[in-house]
Known about the structure:
The complex is a heterodimer. Helices cover 78% and strands 0% of the residues of chain A. By secondary structure, chain A is mostly helical. Chain A folds into two domains: 1-31; 35-104. By secondary structure, chain B is α/β, with parallel strands linked by helices. Chains A and B meet through α2, α3, α4 and α5 of A and α1, α2, α3, α4 and α8 of B.
Amino acid sequence: MEQVFQFFFTYKEAIFIIALSIFLGIEVISHVPAVLHTPLMSGANAVSGVIIIGGIILVGHADLSHFSLSLVLGILALIFATLNVVGGFAVTDRMLEMFKKKKK
Amino acid sequence: MDEILGTVNGMKFTLGDSILELSYLFAALLFVWGLKLLSHPETARRGNLWAAAGMGLAMLTTLLLHKDHAGNGIPLTNVWIILAAIGIGSVIGWIVAMRVKMTAMPQLVSFYNATGGAASALVALLEFPKAMAGDFTSLLVTVLGLIIGSVAFSGSMIAYGKLDGKVGDIFAGYMKYINISLMLITLALGAYLVFSGIPPIELTWGIYLLLILSLLYGVLFVMPIGGADMPVVISLLNALTGIAAAMGGFIYSNEAMILGGILVGAAGMILTMLMCKAMNRSLLNVIIGAFGGGGASISHEQGTIREIQLSDAAVLLSYSQKVVIIPGYGLAAAQAQHMVHELEEILEAKGVNVRYAIHPVAGRMPGHMNVLLAEADVQYEQLVEMDHINPDMPNVDVAIIIGANDVVNPAAYDDPGSPIYGMPIINAHLAKNIIIMKRGMGKGYAGIENFLFFNEKTRMLFGDAKSSLQKLVNEIKSM
């Protein structure tokens, strides 16, 4: 039991963020109409590309003095993450553009 | 920017550090705000742009202001490499997103989800050797990020292949046991890597083995899941990518990543649950139950198929008062959404009330059909959701089913042996007349026999949806 409390106190900020984010995620999505399920999934997918920040940090502080597999994989991670972010937001925008057109 | 501004818990920080964290706070707020706007039709497009702006902000400030533990910023050469990588990814991502056909949208979302998972897995793979032996928390989030990211990657690639028709369903009863064993082995190896106490730098073999096992698990996990359940799987994989990104956030103690990732994870899980509810199935049932086999359903007497001539169909439709069009993926596959809109307009001109009945999982993704019909300029108001159209179905003169199958299969009501038993359907069988446009007598995506075809009110119109609709429109015009 003591360990649980110790763990909680050590990571209290992270646990607060997780708990509140889960609640926010549920709250934001719960009342979405079926019409928007696909664009929403696609938009959320683009947001999960936030790992791109990790990619920037990784490649940003990579040692460039010699060629290494890590560097190649790091650059690959960054390209993949960019595909997720740019492609994700672009395709979502394209879908939503169509909903707008029919309004007039 | 490099002046020391103050000290927190014994750590000195500069103005740049503070601005960086502040920008992460703004980015996180923009993600939340963006998703919130995305869930309403009028504001959805703006929401997407706000979320994208948040991402751009976090990327920019990280590039300019991030420092490693020694307090060094990102060197200029590295900045150029980063910009080049982002440039390559942006150009490819943008071109593909702009060129893809609307019918192929679900595959593309699945593909981009795969790339996100791959990025998370690679980041975890490369950060693992840098962790300290015995630092269980860092090791745990790294290992979890690797497992979840890899599963999301290979699983999404299989889902992509399936939606694109490149990968078939492989299903055998024993696969369940292989999958569970593989999952346990993967988790056991993961636990070993975290808790062994051996310095991570000496465990390179282990982390690569873990990568391979996780990738394999992702493949085997999605492989047996059949067609009709694909939307649920994509949503689930989407949630996993979010969680993997959050693990990356813990590796770097980056709150924007943690919040963004968990937000997507939670939203994805809820969306998965909503879809399961729309199909009246539990998530566990989707994952383990592996839908889509032939199914041991009770045998109905088949009865006869009645065809209808185009001219008869034209007359029937022109003299109806209420017509409901029930579109399915077949309509999308035949690129017939513009033609169906033409049919609707010509009937409306004759004073017929035409509506579209949209099943929550019509198409290959929830809401996919709405996107396709919106592309063909169909009015938003004419798209009626299942729960609203069903009470009115007995008053409908003609229900035209175009390329849909499982979503109108009455077996959902009266055949407890059918895999879709209990799934809510559009009550096409209650309409006064039913016209089914189909390419041939093939089964639906879920591979189940549809007894609506043998209903005595049903008339079949065989042929490619687009050319059949074209002929039907011409026939009605010449009347």
